[in-house]
């Protein structure tokens, strides 16, 4: 069981890519020094935990998910001392830090792999990775990066065998049948725990073990190993979050959330359903997905992202049904083009045709549904992307801080930047940036800050029970979050057309009711409310009173 009131229950998580966030030494690449200087911004915004994509030494063939040393920092970003300074500063400002833990594979340049390929066939050194003489082994395991790879196997001329790579050929899979591998990776966990990190996002967890005749996903042996990770974390005695990245429907992701396994898991099916609902103006399937998720794992253990550093993963009909995928592809602005591997390779704002009302609506849901809302850096500004860049780089461009050169990300000359700053029409950093939006009271940035403030003041949104309320309108999702003292009622219109409807509120007859965002009293004359929600409109109503001791 999760410890009572663990820090991560309902915590607002901000995902950022250290290389793209803020450059402290002027070399064109974001680093820990730059990131440390931006902590006051994150605190001002209301962020509770920062998730950093991998910051370890890497040849960067997969954005740093191809690691050559799990216990060190990439020199572009700083060193262990800089990490210590960053972590201490984040803690001093009341924020937690979550690191990416990449268990499944290493870089092909990792010393373990170099040793393995030169070691004799069948030796313990060779056995650190998964080898085969036959590239048809595990034929049922899908190729994940199908835009870049045709097979899960790569011939190695030195080893004279094929090695397994569920991702790029530069990322050989570790062999978890080998106890030495298991112990090495547990020591990686120890290493970062001793340095004081507050959680791990466990990358690609389903793929640790293989078994012939299966998709090689979420096998019993994988769950047994994850339970060992949990035990190891518990011996450390601190309240540490283990968050699974398993791109699977909720009933398949739920086993990772067994009481003795991981604490949280991303709900990627919900992400797809949110986009499908806004693309089609119909929230029936979204409602079912929410009900399913709460049925299989009630409470706040689902992490809720809209976008992240990968494509908007929709899959092949396994995560969500084909008709859901089709409604996203045909209904979203950029739904047709920009397909990469298994989804749409664009940032949130362009997907929503730059419409801030849609950005607000989707985040208003994220901030009020049960779980850990995950905000992807730049989405608080409605930042754009650069579609022409390779792989998933369109979504990984520098954060826009000011209207100055390079969006204030770096003082380096443009050609030295890690990726180009956005100057695309409608998303130019001279307009879309933190400094400008801070000064405009009605900006998206100030709206996000205000919503997060409201969320902090309303404990029902963090830990309250969740209940869907019947809605007669196909576009309107209505639900409540309640503690013993208060209820927050949320209504959201996922359509581009206005919606009017009646809601039965007899349950709360006589209670004091206020609209949360504007603080106005909402006189309730009878049991039935007549409400009107404009296009992409939503409301949060507070029913009951906030007591001082409720506020988290
Ligand atoms: C990460 C990707 C990465 C892959 C391989 C994931 O699921 O989110 O960015 O390419 O794992 O490590």
Describe the structure.
The chain is of the alpha/beta class and 552 residues long. It has three domains: 13-104 and 179-378, Glycosidases (TIM Barrel), CATH 3.20.20.80; 111-164, Oligo-1,6-glucosidase, Domain 2 (Oligo-1,6-glucosidase, domain 2, Alpha-Beta Complex), CATH 3.90.400; 464-551, Sandwich (Immunoglobulin-like), CATH 2.60.40.1180. The chain has helices at 18-21, 32-36, 39-45, 80-92, 111-118, 179-194, 220-236, 250-253, 268-280, 284-296, 322-331, 348-351, 356-366, 434-439, 444-457, 459-463; strands at residues 13-16, 49-52, 96-102, 131-132, 153-156, 161-164, 199-203, 241-244, 264-266, 302-305, 312-313, 339-340, 343-344, 372-376, 465-469, 476-482, 486-493, 499-504, 513-515, 528-533, 538-544. β12 and β13 form a beta hairpin. α6 packs parallel to α7 (220-236), α9 (268-280) runs antiparallel to α10 and α9 (268-280) packs across α11 (322-331). The chain starts with 12 loop residues before the first strand and ends in an 8-residue tail after the last strand. 52% of the residues are buried. Beta-D-glucopyranose (BGC) binds at residues 62-63, 65, 102, 167, 203-204, 245, 309-310.
Largest sheet: 8 strands, parallel, barrel
Write the CATH homologous superfamily of the largest domain. Answer: Glycosidases
Spans of at least 5 consecutive residues whose pLDDT stays below 50 are none
Percentage of residues assigned to helices: 25-40%
Strand content: 15-25%
Q: What is the residue-mean pLDDT, rounded to a whole number?
A: 95
């Amino acid at each position: 069981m999760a410890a009572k009131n663990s820090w991560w229950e309902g915590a607002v998580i901000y995902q950022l890519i250290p290389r793209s966030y803020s450059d402290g030494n002027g070399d064109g690449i974001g680093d820990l020094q730059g990131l440390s200087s931006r902590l006051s911004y994150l605190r001002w915004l209301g962020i509770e935990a920062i998730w950093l994509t991998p910051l370890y030494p890497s040849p960067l063939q997969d954005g740093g998910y191809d690691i050559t040393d799990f216990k060190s920092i990439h020199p572009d970003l700083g060193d262990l001392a800089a990490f210590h300074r960053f972590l201490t500063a984040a803690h001093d400002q009341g924020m937690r830090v979550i690191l990416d833990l990449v268990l499944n594979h290493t870089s092909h340049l990792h010393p373990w792999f170099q040793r393995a390929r030169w070691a004799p066939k069948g030796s313990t050194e060779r056995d650190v990775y998964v080898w085969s003489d036959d590239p048809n082994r595990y034929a049922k395991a899908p190729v994940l990066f199908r835009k870049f790879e045709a097979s899960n196997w790569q011939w190695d001329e030195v080893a004279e065998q094929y090695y397994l790579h569920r991702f790029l050929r530069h990322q050989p899979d570790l062999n978890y049948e080998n106890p030495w591998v298991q112990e090495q990776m547990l020591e990686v966990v120890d290493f970062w725990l001793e340095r004081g990190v507050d959680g791990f996002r466990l990358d690609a967890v389903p793929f640790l073990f293989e078994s012939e005749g299966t998709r090689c996903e979420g096998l019993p042996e994988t769950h047994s190993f994850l339970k060992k990770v949990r035990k190891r974390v518990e011996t450390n005695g601190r309240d540490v979050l283990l968050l699974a990245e398993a791109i699977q429907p909720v009933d398949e992701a739920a086993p990772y959330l067994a009481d003795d396994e991981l604490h949280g898991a991303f709900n990627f099916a919900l992400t797809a359903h949110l986009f499908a609902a806004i693309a089609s103006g119909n929230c029936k399937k979204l409602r079912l997905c929410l009900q399913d998720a709460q049925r299989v794992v009630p409470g706040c253990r689902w992490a809720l992202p809209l976008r992240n550093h990968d494509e908007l993963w929709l899959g092949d009909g396994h995560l969500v049904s084909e008709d859901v995928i089709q409604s996203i592809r045909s209904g979203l602005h950029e739904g047709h083009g920009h397909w990469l591997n298994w989804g749409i390779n664009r940032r949130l704002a362009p997907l929503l045709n730059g419409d801030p009302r849609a950005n607000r609506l989707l985040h208003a849901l994220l901030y009020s549904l049960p779980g850990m809302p995950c905000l992807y850096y730049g989405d608080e500004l409605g930042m754009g992307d650069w579609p022409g860049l390779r792989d998933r780089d369109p979504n990984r461009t520098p954060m826009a801080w000011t209207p100055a050169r390079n969006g204030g990300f770096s003082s380096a000359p443009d050609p030295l930047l890690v990726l180009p700053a956005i100057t695309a029409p409608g998303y130019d950093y001279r307009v879309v940036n933190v400094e400008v939006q801070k000064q405009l009271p009605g900006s998206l940035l100030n709206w996000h800050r205000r919503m997060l403030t409201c969320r902090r003041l309303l404990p029902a949104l963090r830990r309250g029970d969740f209940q869907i309320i019947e809605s007669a309108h196909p576009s309107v999702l209505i639900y409540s979050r309640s503690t013993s003292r208060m209820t927050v009622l949320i209504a959201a219109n996922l359509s581009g057309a206005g919606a009017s409807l009646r809601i039965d509120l007899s349950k709360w007859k006589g209670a004091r009711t206020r609209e949360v965002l504007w603080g106005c009293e909402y006189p309730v004359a009878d049991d039935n409310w007549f409400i009107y929600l404009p296009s992409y409109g939503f409301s949060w109503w507070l029913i009951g009173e906030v007591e001082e001791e409720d506020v988290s």
